[in-house]
Amino acid sequence: MRQKWRTAGYWLCCVLLTMTLGLLLSACHMPIGWLIAALASAGCIAVLAGREFVPHKFLLRPAQGCIGMAVAVPLSGLASTTIAGYLGISAVCSAATLILCLVCGLALTRAAKTLSPATALLSTLAGGASGICTMAPELRVDHRYVALSQYLRVVVVALTVPLVLHCVGAPAARPHPAGSHVTLISSAAAIAVIVAAGYAGLRWKWPAPFLIAPMLVALVTQFPGPGQFVLALPSELNAVAYVVIGWQAGGALTLCALRQCLRLLPLTCAFIGVAIGGCLVLTVVVSAWTGVTFSQAYLATTPGGIYVALAASDSAAEPLVATMQVLRLLMMNVAAIIASKLLTTQKDSHPDEPREDPALPGVVRAGVGRPWRLARAGRSTSPAFDHRQRRLLSACATASPSAIAPAADTPRSPTRVM
């Protein structure tokens, strides 16, 4: 009972701290303020509690569905011809960004020996931070480092976008209209899609089913063009979903995990800089290809921060920004699933060599053979195994190596006996 009251007290402190930081960041007009506030609050509580502090799956699953539905909202007001016109440049830039992320992931794997290849790759994928961090706990990677590196990149992008726009002389960011398509019917339909598609993906054993399945349904239904029925949720409900996702990411940052992430912080910052530099190169390509200004082309190629980019884009370049950001986000989420599955499968197919038990010398193990294996199995499974094997084991352990070593002319090799 005392443990339950203590956990309830931790949650109360986490909620109060999240609300305080969220209101403060919202007053500063940061589009991802509630997510950052929840991540920081849950991280502080996890460090104080000395254990992971993660919400229950009954909160995580609806939150994942809300994030998946919100992905397709930027495309809801665009015509099919407009989206199709930007698919070429979007595919080229998304593929180039993915190649850059693969190179960064390989370099991070070589530089940080403690990270698995799947963890290094997921931490360097530029785009879809919320989706990647949401599915990371289900993909057999170090989701704590993935969350820290992904959200650190998003924060850096959110803070540097106004600076870049100011340096190139672009106008100030305008308020991004949200909730214009939200009605009671659309909200009810979106909730029904989240539940139905999520449980269908769970039945089909999809990775992160409550994120991927609603996302695919929303993209298919919102693609035809303006005037169609839009699956949208109120902004307040999306804010709550981002808070839950932030709690999931921050609650896993225990003191031990935070120390490891801090040791890797210089490498993390270096690869974030490489991602931003690579996207600046793509900005020149997009500006020359489409004829938009450098500032709007940069918003279309920023390594993450889709809502920051949409909030700062003008009406003329918003279709390009929305198409490129959403397509790259979808590509990065798919790449995260495929790459993590392939890398973990390769690791499982090449397991480490079994270590020799140092309890007896190698020559003793070679002489004992099958009785020694039975002794090891008996110690680990059943303490009361055959007494004859016990006597044989004790006799071999006390005998000299020459007495129990196999004869040189024995036709069966010791390895065959083992």
Notable features of this structure?
21 helices, transmembrane, mainly alpha, disordered C terminus, 418 residues
Can you walk through the features of this model?
The C terminus is likely disordered. It is built from 21 helices and no strands. The radius of gyration is 27 Å and the shape is globular. The chain starts with a helix and ends with a helix. The chain has 418 residues and is mostly helical. The protein has one domain. It comes from Mycobacterium ostraviense.
Summarize the structure.
By secondary structure, this protein is an all-alpha fold. Helices cover 72% and strands 0% of the residues. InterPro entries: AbrB_fam.
N→C terminal distance = 52 Å
- The helix/strand series, from N terminus to C terminus, equals HHHHHHHHHHHHHHHHHHHHH
Compute the number of structural domains.
Answer: 1
Which structural class matches the secondary elements? mainly alpha
Q: Helicity range of the residues? A: over 70%
Shape: globular
Low-confidence stretches: 351-386, 406-418
What's the rounded overall pLDDT mean?
Answer: 80
Please count the helical segments: 21
Which radius of gyration do the C-alpha atoms yield? 27 Å
Number of strands: 0
Largest sheet: none
Assembly state of the chains shown: single chain
Indicate the proportion of strand residues.
Answer: under 5%
Transmembrane segments: 7-26, 32-51, 58-77, 83-108, 151-170, 182-202, 239-258, 265-289
GO cellular component, one term: membrane
InterPro entries: AbrB_fam
Keywords: Membrane, Transmembrane, Transmembrane helix
